[in-house]
Structure formats: C-alpha cells, structure tokens
Design goal:
Number of helices: 17
Structural class: alpha/beta
Shape: globular
Distance between the termini: 51 Å
Strand order of the largest sheet: 7-8-6-9-10-11-12-13-14
Strand content: 15-25%
Number of strands: 20
Helix content: 25-40%
Radius of gyration: 23 Å
CATH superfamily of the largest domain: Mur-like, catalytic domain
CATH class of the largest domain: Alpha Beta
CATH topology of the largest domain: UDP-N-acetylmuramoyl-L-alanine:D-glutamate ligase
CATH architecture of the largest domain: 3-Layer(aba) Sandwich
Length: about 450
C-alpha cells in the first residue's frame, strides 16, 4: 500500500473521528476482503488494532496470519472483552450493526468508522461514488472505462472488485467507487466530487427496517458538496435533489439534462441538452435500462470534466458485465440471457421492461423479505411463461395467481433450463433474472449464472 503523507492522513482521521494513533484501540469486525484491507491500512499507519470474527475459520485467516502474525485475532464468536476495550469499530459491510455485541459497544462509547471513511480521509484525487438498487456495477465499470478513454489514470473498486483501501496502492487521477447501502450506513466522511443514486427499489429489507430507511442510507452518498447525478425516472431519487447543489439529471422517459430523443434522421440518440452524443443503436447492450445506465455514466463523467467524445467512443465498445444481461447463446433461434446478478425485484423488472417482445422468465431464490407482488405487473406485461425455482419460489407463484401467465416449477437450474427450452419457440428469448438472492442453492450469483450457462450450452445438439 502506498500512503504518501501519513501525518496528513492521521491528522484527518483524528479530526473526523478522534482516531489518534497514540490512544486509539481499533477493533476490526470481520475478516473478509474488507477486513483484511482495513488491517493492512491500519498496520501501515501504525494504529493499534485487533481482528474479531464470529467464524472459527474466516476465509482469509491464513493470509492474515502470514502478513500480521503478531496482531491479536479472536475467532469463533464475539468476545465481549475485545469489544469493551475498543475505542473504534470498523465493521465489515456483511455484518449488521444490530449485532448485540456491536450495539453494546456503541452504547458504551465506541465510535463506528467505515473503510470508506478511512479511504475518504486518505485521498486527494476526486472520487466518483455510485450506488443504487440496480445497475451500480454496470455504471461503475462504464465510468471506469470512459475515464480511461478520456486519458485519466483511474482506480475502480469498493463494493465491486477491489476493496476501497487497497485502491490506495494505485497512483490515480480519479477514484470510482461502487457503494452498497451497508457501506453507506456507516460512512460519514465521504465527500465525492460526483455521486449518484441510480434508483431505489425493494432490496435488503432483511437488514433495513423498511424502504424509507433503505432509501435514507442510499442518500448518504450525497453527503458533501460535489455534483449530484439524479435519475428523474425514479420518484424516490428525484426527491433527493438539492437545488442548492450542482446537479445533472438523466432520464429515458422525460426531459432532463441527459436523455433519449428521436432526431430528424429517425434515429434515437443519447442527448446532452441539444447535443447528440451517441445513437442508441451503437450502445452494444441489451435493454433500454442500459441506456439509462449509459446516461448516468455520461453525466458523472461530465461532472468531473471528462471529454464527451472520448466517453462516447468508450461506450461504443462496452461489452457489459458477466451475469448482467449477458447473452449466453442462440440455440435453434432461441436467445438465452444470463441476468443472474438480478438479485432483487427492481433488477428483474428493469430487465423485463427492456424487451419489446414477451420472454420466458426463470426466477426464484431467496426473496430477502421483499414483497413479490411487486413483480406481478412486469411479469404480466412482459412474460409469456415463468419457470420458478428455489426457496421462495412459492412466494412468486402466489403473487402471480390470477395473472394469466403460465407458471412452472423446477427443482434446480438444469431442470429450469430444460422446461424453458420446451416452452420456447424460434425468435423467443429465455431470461434468467431471478429477482432473488442465490444462497439457497448456490455459492453466489456468479455460481448461479455459471450453472445456468452450463445447462444452456448442454442443449446444443
């Protein structure tokens, strides 16, 4: 890790969080990728810290012991004694702040600091911060690509790929962070040069009390005084607009700073005010929701002064992400699309609405407390049949009663693909867009998408 001005960073941390290297005792809660990145950072700056993890064998324990053999490590539970001596807690995003031991430590005066706080206090280059229920990985990757195309050195990470603190190893002109609600709920020092909440739909309601709290955590990305990029197609996001701030709006439905419009040549364009940026037909991604993602990326780029032509050139060659509206194959005239990263209702709805023709949908998994009735209108409008699998498939089936859309049940992904193949005709698309998490049957959404791809390719004669 390259940290140039240690004194300036520790002064900033002390000013924001009373994180004095001489007196602070930091407890890092959770030894995953984020926890290990925090440990490396604290070690570099000379802070006293310990690690605690409720698991007997955290996944990165061997790497931690090799790099920091003398650092105290507690595993197999949350020992009260470790929390009692901590002045500060850095809690990994995968852990709820409502854990009993964490709540007790906070009540006794321990301060919560996030890895994003530590990062924000350590960089001088601008930060672009991206959050939302859906599309944030796509937009983060887009922004990374268009920044490179504009000739800037860029480091990309956060909730996507590299933990934020490990990005300090890069000498960057610009940092692009994808941020989850779990990261934002414990972050206070972020002051991004440009930030966006792409959209807000039901997700993670097993961790957040309700939609209002979830939206409030997302809105924290706008703390500071940087430019706000606002989606005018999402009323929850539109309500976050602050007229006292520099703001760029985007929309695929209405007028905005960045928008879609048919021009006098009969083609639809991505527009900035009256300027044609890019013909929509040249954006190599399926679904109109990806036009919204591209408009958001362009707005963020303009916010930090990137060249518009260079950004558009990058978008022309953007291939998208694995497991996000990824075309797997065309077999006997049927197109198979892997959208396994659609782990919530909003992502599935966006995927369905991107199609002009009705599709065969494969869905199901862990609903995470979401109301599956919110899926019904989009499925009724855009699906000719639905194949359900996974733990909460019955919730979706119940929601679809009376929708007149045929519903079929599958025990696993292979059977789901086989059923979908029997329903599909030439010219149809089969879309895996589960609207649910994957951990009931798979290691993660990548594993689900890979097994879907394998089952689809097995159909090739």
């Amino acid at each position: 890790m390259t940290i140039v001005d240690t004194q300036a960073i520790t002064d900033s941390l002390n000013r924001h969080f009373a994180l004095d290297p001489q007196s602070a005792k930091v407890l890092v809660v959770g030894l995953g990728n984020t926890g290990l990145s925090v440990a490396r950072y604290l070690q570099k700056l000379g802070y006293r810290f310990a690690i605690i993890d409720s698991r007997d064998q955290p996944p990165l324990i061997a790497e931690f012991l090799e790099q920091m053999p003398d650092t105290p490590l507690f595993t197999g539970g949350f020992d009260d004694a470790a929390f009692q001596v901590a002045t500060h807690l850095v809690v990994s995003p995968g852990l709820s702040l409502n854990e009993k031991a964490i709540m007790k430590a906070i009540a006794n005066g321990s301060k919560i600091v996030s890895d994003i706080d530590l990062f924000a206090c350590s960089v001088t280059a601008p930060i672009i911060a991206i959050t939302g229920s859906n599309g944030k990985s796509t937009v983060t990757t887009m922004v990374g690509d268009i920044t490179k195309a504009a000739g800037k050195r860029v480091a990309i990470g956060g909730n996507l790929g590299v933990p934020a603190l490990d990005l300090l190893e890069h000498d960057a002109d610009l940092y692009v962070l994808e941020l989850s609600s779990f990261q934002l709920e414990r972050t206070a020092a972020l002051n991004a040069a440009a930030a966006t909440v792409l959209n807000v739909s039901a997700d993670h309601l097993d961790r957040h009390a309700d939609m209002a709290e979830y939206a409030q955590e997302k809105q924290r990305v706008f703390r500071g005084m940087g430019a706000m990029v606002i989606n005018m197609d999402d009323p929850v996001v539109e309500a976050m607009l602050d007229k006292g701030r520099v703001t760029h709006t985007f929309s695929i439905k209405t007028s905005a700073d960045f928008y879609l419009a048919v021009q006098d040549d009969g083609n639809e364009y991505l527009m900035h005010h009256n300027e044609r940026l890019l013909p929509l037909a040249q954006l190599p991604l399926e679904g109109r929701h990806n036009a919204a993602n591209a408009l958001a990326a362009l707005a963020l780029g303009v916010s930090v002064g990137l060249d518009k032509q260079a950004m558009c050139n990058a978008l022309r060659t953007f291939k998208g992400l694995e497991h996000r509206m990824q075309r797997v194959a065309e077999i006997r005239g049927v197109t198979w699309v892997n959208d396994s990263k659609a782990t919530n209702i909003g992502a599935c709805v966006a995927a369905l609405q991107g199609y002009a023709r009705k599709v065969i949908l494969i869905a199901g998994g862990q609903a995470k407390g979401a109301d599956m009735n919110e899926l019904t209108p989009a499925i009724k409008a855009k699906a000719k049949g639905v194949v359900l699998m996974g733990k909460d498939a019955p919730l979706i089936e119940e929601a679809l009663q009376g929708s007149c859309v045929p519903v079929y049940s599958a025990e696993n992904i292979t059977q789901a693909v086989q059923i979908a193949a029997s329903l599909a005709s030439s010219g149809d698309s089969v879309l895996l867009s589960p609207a649910c998490a994957s951990l009931d049957q798979f290691k993660n959404y990548e594993d689900r998408g890979n097994k879907f791809t394998k089952a689809v390719l097995a159909l090739v004669p």
